């Protein structure tokens, strides 16, 4: 069996989450919008409990929560919804600002908005993956409508200085959206304290089901719905609420919060050992600022080996991610933003540890990397 070390791509659904979801698939099929009879009211109450759990995890009231199909949709709703609302009220601020290392689910809607009349600034990051606050201060002008900066990067795990960014946004009257898909349930995040106006999260990145997520919005912040329909979610996201998935998201958030600290400490120690042993192989570089990184993340680049051959070897025993989208053969835009060239990006390995990861899994990873490096490295 493959050793799964790709928890940034997705996490296994917690069995307790699955159990919490089960009756909402098989026993109570009522639509919470129906409201006329008891099962519908019970479904509505279950959704309310989940909404409360998600809100509490981010330190906000439950009216901030808009359930979506995932973080991709939440990002689209946040960015396109803010832009459309600004257009409708004739807001003179139009500029959008983001980072080169953001997820495609931010960069693509941003590029779409740029083509539709919203000037876009894409800021570079430092070679350690972090945003330079000085550079940001220069970029946020009186024309800036919104800034989008992720909490934790999905490829290198690097954490951005959210509190500083949020304070700057407030000072400049700029809305702050944060794609926190990799951070919620993994590190503490208090939305209001950090000055975040809009925050995206995803169920399947925190041991919940795939196909559900949420956008948290500071109540009152103008947002135009991007999916029109039956008026669900305060008219901001039409569509029948997927009760089982929402219940699962609530249970997953609660479960992730319950063991977060213990998990972070345990996985942080395993990750540190993994890095130490990989470093000892020689010619292995670590990507991203190590002091400001998710505890379960490690991205390394192996010098002097061919990336395609490296990953062909590794995938016999490990499920890990590479630094390039193999189908297109193009290097990851995140690694490119750090300054890695095509070759280095290809020979990059992302390890994502998770709740089920053991010390034995780390041993497997170290052995696989050691074997691959020994076999593939071209003697100088
Ligand atoms: C996974 C991920 C997404 C996409 O989330 P989905 O729920 O799969 O749509 C967006 N942003 C980041 C940073 C992610 O890691």
TrEMBL record:
Keywords: Iron, Iron-sulfur, Metal-binding, Pyridoxal phosphate, Transferase. Its EC number is 2.8.1.7. It catalyses: (sulfur carrier)-H + L-cysteine = (sulfur carrier)-SH + L-alanine. The lineage of its organism: Bacteria, Bacillati, Cyanobacteriota, Cyanophyceae, Synechococcales. Residues 3-363 form the Aminotransferase class V domain. Transmembrane segments: none annotated. Belongs to the class-V pyridoxal-phosphate-dependent aminotransferase family. NifS/IscS subfamily. It comes from the Bacteria. Its cofactor is pyridoxal 5'-phosphate. It is an enzyme of class 2 (transferase). This is cysteine desulfurase.
């Amino acid at each position: 069996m493959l050793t799964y070390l790709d928890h940034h791509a997705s996490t296994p659904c917690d069995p307790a989450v699955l159990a919490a979801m089960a009756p909402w698939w098989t026993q109570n099929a009522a639509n919470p919008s129906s409201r006329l009879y008891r099962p519908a009211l019970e479904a509505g109450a279950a959704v309310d409990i989940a909404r409360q759990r998600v809100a509490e995890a981010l330190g906000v009231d439950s009216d901030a929560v808009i359930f979506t199909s995932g973080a991709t949709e939440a990002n689209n709703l946040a960015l396109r919804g803010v832009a459309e609302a600004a257009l409708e009220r004739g807001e003179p601020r139009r500029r959008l600002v983001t980072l080169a290392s953001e997820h495609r689910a931010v960069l693509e809607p941003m590029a779409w908005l740029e083509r539709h009349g919203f000037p876009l600034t894409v800021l570079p990051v430092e070679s350690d993956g972090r945003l330079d606050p000085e550079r940001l201060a220069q970029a946020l002008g009186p024309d800036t409508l919104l800034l989008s900066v992720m909490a934790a990067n999905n490829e290198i795990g690097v954490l951005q200085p959210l509190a500083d960014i949020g304070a700057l946004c407030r000072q400049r009257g700029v809305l702050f959206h944060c794609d926190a898909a990799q951070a919620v349930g993994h590190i503490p995040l208090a939305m209001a304290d950090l000055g975040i106006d809009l925050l995206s999260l995803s169920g399947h990145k925190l041991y919940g089901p795939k196909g559900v997520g949420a956008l948290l919005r500071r109540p009152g912040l103008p947002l135009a719905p991007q999916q029109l329909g039956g008026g669900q979610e305060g008219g901001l996201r039409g569509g029948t609420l997927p009760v089982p998935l929402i219940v699962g998201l609530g249970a997953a958030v609660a479960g992730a919060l319950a063991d977060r600290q213990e998990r972070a400490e345990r996985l942080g120690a395993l990750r540190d050992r993994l890095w130490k042993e990989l470093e000892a192989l020689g010619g292995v570089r670590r990507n991203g600022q190590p002091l400001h990184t998710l505890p379960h993340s490690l991205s390394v680049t192996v010098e002097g080996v061919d990336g395609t051959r490296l990953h062909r070897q590794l995938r016999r025993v490990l499920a890990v991610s590479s630094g390039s989208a193999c189908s297109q053969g193009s290097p990851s835009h995140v690694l490119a933003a750090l300054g890695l060239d095509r070759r280095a990006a290809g020979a990059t390995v992302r390890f994502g540890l998770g709740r089920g990861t053991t010390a034995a899994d780390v041993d497997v990873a170290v052995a696989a990397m050691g074997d691959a490096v020994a076999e593939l490295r071209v003697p100088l």
